[in-house]
Amino acid sequence: xxxxxxxxxxxxxxxxxxxxxxxxxxxxxxxxxxxxxxxxxxxxxxxxxxxxxxxxxxxxxxxxxxxxxxxxxxxxxxxxxxxxxxxxxx
Length: 90
Fold this sequence. Notes:
Layout: H1 3-19, H2 25-38, H3 49-58, E1 62-64, E2 68-70, H4 72-79
Antiparallel strand pairs: 1-2
């Protein structure tokens, strides 16, 4: 996992905390791209959000039940993630 994967997990987690509901894929994409645009150290060419969301789903870090949410495993991975990996402009 790299900073982009952690960022997707953080987007999903932050949305749930802020709005109390599951996030739709288009909202994940919108928040993800906004964070990348706000941080000049990130490379848009490496983002490939579709592949990343699919891989996170296959690895059982996220699930989709009327919106995306973190699984228990996803919450654990995010809680142990180094803060600098995904803490970019929110």
